[in-house]
Amino acid sequence: MEALVGGVACEGRRGGGKRKNVKYLSNGPKRKSSYGLRAGSKGFLVTCDKGQERSTMKEAINLLDEFYERLVEGANATINSKDNQFSQLSPHIIRHDLADSVENKVEANANSQEEAVESNDSRENEFEGEKTSQVGSLSNIMQNCKHTKTGVANDHIKNIDDALELELAQLRDKRKARFIGLDTGCAGIVFVEMLRDDNVRPLELVKSIIRTVVTSKQSRTSCRFCLRLLPVEVTCYASQSEVKRAAEPVISHYFSQENGDDGLKFAVVYEARANTSLDRMEIINAVAQLVPKHHSVDLKNPDITIIVQIVKTTCAIGIAHEFKEMAKYNLKQIVLQKAES
Q1: pLDDT tens-digit map of 253-286
Q2: Is 47 helix (H, G, I), strand (E, B) or coil?
Q3: Contact 204/44 with Cβ under 8 angstroms?
Q4: pTM for this structure?
Q5: CA-to-CA distance for 227 and 63, rounded, in angstroms?
Q6: What's the Cα-to-Cα distance from 335 to each of 50, 108, 310, 339, rounded to whole Å?
Q7: Which of 32, 31, 102, 88 is nearest to 58 (CA)?
Q8: Which of 142, 157, 233, 262 has CA atoms 20 to 30 A from the CA of 33?
Q9: 3-class DSSP assignment, residue 271
Q10: CA dihedral in degrees (51, 54, 58, 64; nearest 10)?
C-alpha cells in the first residue's frame, strides 16, 4: 500500500524533483466591516427594502439636508438645485463643461472681432485709395484676434482647476458638516447621524417632512427608497442599565416634572433586530418608570410615543408625536392613508 502511494506520488513529478508548493493569490486585503452605528449618536433610523441600503442612505441625507436648511436658515430657504447638480457631477465632467463654456466665450469674442474685421472689409470698397493700408491693418487685427483667443483660453483654463477644487471642497464640507450615513450591519435599515446641533432636534426635522408629505399628499418625488423615518435622540449600548441612563435626559426634556402640570398620555414602542438577549417587557418597564407619575400610559391614543429600537448591540431612543396616526412615520403609508381619506 505504501509502495502504491509512493508510486502515484512519483507520477505527478517532473524529473523526480520535489513537488513545488502551490501558491494562492489573494484578491487584495479583506474589507473590514463598515458597521458604524455607535453609542452617543443622534440622528435617524431609516428603514428600506433589503438591498437598497446604500441608495436609501444617500436619499435620506439629501432629504434631511433640504429640510434642515429650511428650519435653520429660514422657512423659505431651499437648497440650490444648481449646487446639487454641481456636487453630483464628477470633477472630470465639470472641468469638461467649464472648459467648453470658456471655449464658447472665446469663440464668441473672436467672432465679434472678426465681424468687425469684415465691416472694415466693406469700407475698403468705398475707400479704394486706402486699400493697401487697410489690408495691413486687417492682417494685424486678425493676428491680434488669434493671440487674444489663445491667451484668454489659457488664462481661463489655468484658473478652472483651482476654482473647481475650491467649490467642490466647500460643497463637500457643507454636506459633511450636517449628516453622515452609518451602516447598522442589518439589512433593511440604515442610520443617518446628525452632526450639527443648531438647536434642531431630530423630531423637528421628521415632523417638518411629514407635514410636507401630508400637505402635498405625495411622498416627495425624490423619495424612492426611504420607508420609515424614525427620529433618534440618543444611542447607547443595548443593556437595561444603559438604556435607563440614556433615556432619562430625553424623557426629562419632553415630559414636565411638575405634578401640577397637565399630564400627558404616553406609550413605549419596542422593536429589536439581530438581538435576542434582551427581555422586551423589562426594557419597556424600565423606560416607562422614568416618566413622572402624573403622566399616564395610553397604548391606543398616546400624546407622546417613546421609541426604543434595538439594532444588534446598540439601542436607539427617540420621541414621536402622533406616531400611530402617521402610520408609524412610514412616508409611503402616510400618502396612502391620506389618499383613502
Answers
A1: 999 988 767 889 999 999 999 999 999 999 999 9
A2: strand
A3: no
A4: 0.62
A5: 13
A6: 22, 51, 27, 6
A7: 88
A8: 233
A9: strand
A10: 70
